[in-house]
Specification:
Blueprint (H helix, E strand, L loop, with lengths): L16 E5 L3 H11 L4 E5 L2 H11 L3 E5 L7 H9 L9 E5 L4 H9 L4 E4 L4 H24 L11 H18 L3 E8 L2 H8 L1 H17 L7 E6 L2 E7 L3 H17 L15 E8 L7 H17 L5 E2 L1
Parallel strand pairs: 1-2, 1-3, 3-4, 4-5, 9-10
Antiparallel strand pairs: 6-8, 6-9, 7-8
Helix pairs in contact: 2-3, 7-8
Bound molecules: magnesium ion (MG).
């Protein structure tokens, strides 16, 4: 068959992950051969395995055999759709059964498409492409909706989602959760003096610098509003959080962004408030936010360009 590897998926798409599930290795081989040039292929020969791979790999698409011993395709689909973590993965049923009622049943379970065996390579490729593009476009839109357009760090919406998830996680693990609120000192004066365009550039540099101060993939720096940023540090105690806050303060000062209207050495500086809690049913997430905010206020009162906790 002729391959059109270069244009099979639009340029923006990263290399997709496909999970092929079938109890007949010969069927897996056919599909593997069709897609291995363009996609990373994972394989499973039974339902349990399929669910495990979905949870660990989060594939972009599942090609799912219906008739299998034990947990069959319908059950796999039901379980993936009832789990928040996997319900967004599109599923295409591939089966030798040609009854229309079978197709209806599969679609009602939440599958996006239905392909019959024996496999016609052109049909399979076309349908897989359609659903992969939809999935990847959807992922891209979703991630764009969670990024701050000016600075490129996470936005407020992402912050709100993540702090709730991290709170729950730390509550389960009895682990501490730290939060840093960050505010740019005399930013209004900066805008008045240098103009809003320079103000935007200043916020971009600061955001980039703050993001560089955290290293673990589950730490998050977000733009909280205007010239305010926030940093979520799961599984981090107060001393670790203070260390990061001090590093942020220092790194922003070392950017040496001129600010002739600031009383603090005529460069741009930030004030920070740190709060740490081990989530329990006695505390509310709101208390953690309130506490970090109070510490930030204390830093402002104490003369700015400092960390309070
Ligand atoms: Mg089968």
């Amino acid at each position: 068959m002729e391959k059109n590897t270069e244009n099979w998926l639009p340029d923006f798409c990263s290399r997709p992950k496909i999970l092929v599930v079938d109890d007949q290795p010969a069927n897996i081989r056919v599909l593997h051969e069709l897609f291995r040039h363009d996609c990373d292929i994972f394989m499973a020969t039974n339902g349990e395995q399929a669910i495990t791979v979905c949870q660990s790999q989060l594939p972009d698409l599942v090609l799912l055999d219906v008739v299998m011993e034990g947990v069959d395709g319908h059950e796999v689909c039901r379980r993936l759709k009832s789990d928040l973590a996997t319900q967004g993965i599109p599923i295409i049923f591939i089966t030798a059964q040609h009854h229309e009622s079978e197709e209806v049943f599969g679609l009602e379970l939440g599958a996006v498409d239905f392909i019959s065996k024996p496999i016609n390579p052109i049909i399979v490729k076309a349908r897989v492409r359609t659903h992969l593009v939809l999935k990847l476009q959807n992922d891209q839109l979703r991630s764009m909706a969670l990024i701050d357009g000016l600075t490129g760090v996470a936005n407020r919406r992402k912050f709100d989602e993540k702090i709730i998830a991290d709170w729950r996680q730390c509550l389960r693990d009895k682990n501490s959760l730290s939060l840093i609120f960050i505010d740019v000192d005399y930013f209004k004066r900066y805008n008045d003096k240098y103009g809003h365009q320079a103000g935007d550039e200043c916020l971009k540099s600061i955001a980039l610098t703050l993001a560089k101060c955290v290293r673990r993939p589950y730490d998050l720096v977000a733009r909280y509003g205007g010239e305010e940023f926030a940093c979520i540090l799961p599984s981090t105690g107060i001393s670790g959080a203070i260390e990061i806050a001090e590093r942020m303060k220092q790194c922003v000062r070392e950017l040496n962004i001129e600010h002739s209207e600031s009383d603090l050495g005529q460069v741009v500086t930030i004030s920070l408030g740190v709060a740490t809690v081990i989530p329990s049913v006695d505390f509310k997430l709101q208390d953690l936010l309130g506490s970090a905010d109070k510490q930030l206020y204390k830093s402002k009162q104490a003369g700015r360009n400092c960390v309070s906790f």
